[in-house]
TrEMBL record:
NCBIfam families: nirD_assim_sml (TIGR02378)
Pfam family, one: Rieske
MF (Gene Ontology): 2 iron, 2 sulfur cluster binding; metal ion binding; monooxygenase activity; nitrite reductase (NADH) activity; oxidoreductase activity, acting on paired donors, with incorporation or reduction of molecular oxygen
Keyword annotations of the record: 2Fe-2S, Iron, Iron-sulfur, Metal-binding, Nitrate assimilation, Oxidoreductase
Provenance organism: Paenibacillus amylolyticus
Chain coiled-coil ranges: none
Designated name of the protein: Nitrite reductase (NADH) small subunit
């Protein structure tokens, strides 16, 4: 398990995302309107659209290519489509606002 520092809470706008690379995987960290953070692989399971460029609505993101909807809390694609993304645990240091994610492996 690797715990990585990826930035500060203030670096991500509400309903926005920040991306970064871990080895050859691009990860997108989204901030929802309730302030919670969710980290997912930045690659739509349909045809690889960059989810960080999609629109956040509630707890889901709409893929910018063909509008699949993906739940950012668990990485699951909403029906009638089907699929799942890798998700990563996020932590916020309450005092400093620094953000960490945990990568298995
Ligand atoms: S690539 Fe995301 S919906 Fe097609």
């Amino acid at each position: 398990m690797n715990r990585l520092h990826i930035g500060h809470l203030a670096d991500i706008e509400e309903k926005g995302a920040r991306t970064f690379m871990v080895e050859d995987t691009e990860i997108a960290v989204f901030k929802l309107s309730d302030g919670s953070l969710h980290a997912v692989e930045n690659r739509c399971p349909h045809k690889g659209g960059k989810l960080s460029e999609g629109m956040v609505c509630g707890t889901s993101v709409h893929c910018p290519l063909h509008d699949w909807k993906i739940d950012l809390r668990n990485g699951k694609v909403h029906e009638p489509d089907d699929g799942c993304l890798n998700t990563y645990k996020t932590e916020i240091d309450g005092a400093s606002g620094e953000i960490y994610i945990t990568i298995a492996g």
